[in-house]
């Protein structure tokens, strides 16, 4: 006698339901994975490409404007004496600061501040093959996310006594300061403006400090967190700041340089 196996329809329905649930879950996971991958590609690759192209166009526009203004380069002159009193500055060391520091004062002899969030200088680091525009302010949307380097409001301008302090992204949005940790003493950093080119030589690097260590961009830059790091005497300084470690904003990496020459355009 042959026994016929009886299959309950309810069991078949449960198996089909489980298969649909598993298949639906797999589709959701694949979709989420694709979306996350696209977000990563956009953040890491597309923002870099877009920002670098925009920054490059701005550099070329500045060069054309300056060339049209005329002016011949003359023999470089030595940096002015560092005995002059630097202009006061009051700003945070956080590259994400979006507004100028309140109560900031400027000496009457100082040149007027550039238009807000507009590029007005070019920063070049030959060792890194970097050539990027500098704009006033350090907001992300207005300056840093364009691939520009941002000038901290309240700090000195290029060539002035005191501290010309700037910030830049280390990752994404052009990441102009990604490799400033590779800079060594005597490496050259140039800041070009409409009137002159200022050459600074790297002097010190602070590999890591707290994000709130605002003293690193003071008129006489020094760390308020790392004793003994920085300077004691007035001078003509350049400060580069960015986030560290890579792909985080927990700490700040700081590179200090000193003015060594000025070449009028």
TrEMBL record:
Pfam families found in the cross-reference section: Sortase
Top-rank taxon: Bacteria
Gene3D superfamilies: Sortase
SUPFAM superfamilies registered for this protein in UniProt: Sortase
Region (Disordered): 69-113
TM ranges: 21-46
This protein's UniProt keywords: Hydrolase, Membrane, Transmembrane, Transmembrane helix
Organism: Streptomyces sp. NBC_00180
Keyword Oxidoreductase: no
Annotated Low complexity bias: 75-98
GO molecular function: hydrolase activity
Protein name in the entry: Class E sortase
Annotated catalytic residues: 169, 243
InterPro entries (UniProt xref): Sortase (IPR005754), Sortase_Class_E (IPR053465), Sortase_dom-sf (IPR023365), Sortase_E (IPR042003)
């Amino acid at each position: 006698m042959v026994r016929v196996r009886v299959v309950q329809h309810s069991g078949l329905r449960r198996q089909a339901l489980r298969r649909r649930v598993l298949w639906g879950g797999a589709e959701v996971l694949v979709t989420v994975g694709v979306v996350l991958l696209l977000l990563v590609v956009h953040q890491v690759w597309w923002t870099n490409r877009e920002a670098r192209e925009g920054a490059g166009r701005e550099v070329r526009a500045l060069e054309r404007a300056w060339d049209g203004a005329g002016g011949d380069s003359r023999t470089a002159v030595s940096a002015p004496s560092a005995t002059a009193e630097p202009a006061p500055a009051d700003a945070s060391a956080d590259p994400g600061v979006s507004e100028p520091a309140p109560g900031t004062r400027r000496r009457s002899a100082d040149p007027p501040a550039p238009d807000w969030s507009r590029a007005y200088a070019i920063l070049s680091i030959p060792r890194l093959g970097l050539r990027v525009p500098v704009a006033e302010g350090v907001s992300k949307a207005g300056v840093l996310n364009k691939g520009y380097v941002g000038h901290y409001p309240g700090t000195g301008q290029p060539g002035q006594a005191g501290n010309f302090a700037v910030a830049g992204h280390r990752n994404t949005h052009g990441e102009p300061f990604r490799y400033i940790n590779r800079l060594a003493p005597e490496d050259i950093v140039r800041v070009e403006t409409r009137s002159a080119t200022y050459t600074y030589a790297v002097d010190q690097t602070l590999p890591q400090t707290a994000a709130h260590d605002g003293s690193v961009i003071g008129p006489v830059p020094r760390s308020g967190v790392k004793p003994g790091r920085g300077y004691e005497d007035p001078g003509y300084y350049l400060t580069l700041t960015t986030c560290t470690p890579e792909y985080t904003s927990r700490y700040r990496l700081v590179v200090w340089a000193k003015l060594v020459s000025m070449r009028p355009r």
